[in-house]
Write a structure and sequence with these properties.
Length: 177
């Protein structure tokens, strides 16, 4: 298990998005553009989800996060594994008493920045555009430096006022009510 250090911000205008894209292209390397289809699962009537199934192409990845919010930055202990069948996983989740909490689609332009930091310009269907920056830390000793670097990037991009601490799934669930 590793710790994911992550922060995201709304990209509210076309000029903000263009500024971010220019920064990422200048300071990093464009890797790919992908569509991520996420299905979040919760116990019946729960206000919070427990895990998700992400579909990227023909891959299915289950993720469970133990989320810790420090300020507006997440530090998540993350457990991930692949499954071979989406249908079988949905059936198993139902047999264990889980139901679909919400579905989310995001289209991501993924960049790699120095220090193995991942930055994504994402469009979340129903919400809008965001910048996500994350670093996967194998050891606790890496977390402080990752936090500082991520905060520095958001400051350089002048996006501190746009930081969003709420999870996408909860933002979408609130809209669905």
């Amino acid at each position: 298990m590793h710790t994911e250090v992550e922060m995201k911000a709304w990209l509210k205008t076309a000029s903000e998005k263009a500024r971010v894209k220019k920064y990422l292209s200048t300071h990093g390397k464009f890797l790919k553009k992908v569509t991520k289809q996420d299905t979040y699962f919760a116990r019946q009537g729960a206000a919070q989800f427990d895990f998700r199934l992400r579909e990227v192409g023909k891959k299915y990845i289950v993720t469970q996060k133990t989320r810790t919010l420090r300020g507006k930055m997440e530090e998540n202990a993350e457990l991930e594994f692949e499954v071979s069948s989406k249908a079988a996983f949905f059936e198993l989740a139902a047999k264990l008493g889980y139901e679909i909490f919400i579905k989310k689609t995001k289209i991501a332009e993924i960049y790699e920045l120095p220090g193995k930091i991942t930055a994504e310009i994402v469009q979340v269907t129903g919400l809008g555009d965001f910048l996500e920056i994350e670093k996967l830390c194998a050891a606790k000793a890496e977390i402080s430096a990752a936090r500082k670097k991520i905060q520095m990037i958001f400051a350089e991009l002048e996006l501190q006022k746009n930081i969003e601490a709420k999870q996408y799934a909860l933002l979408l669930k609130k809209l669905a009510r």
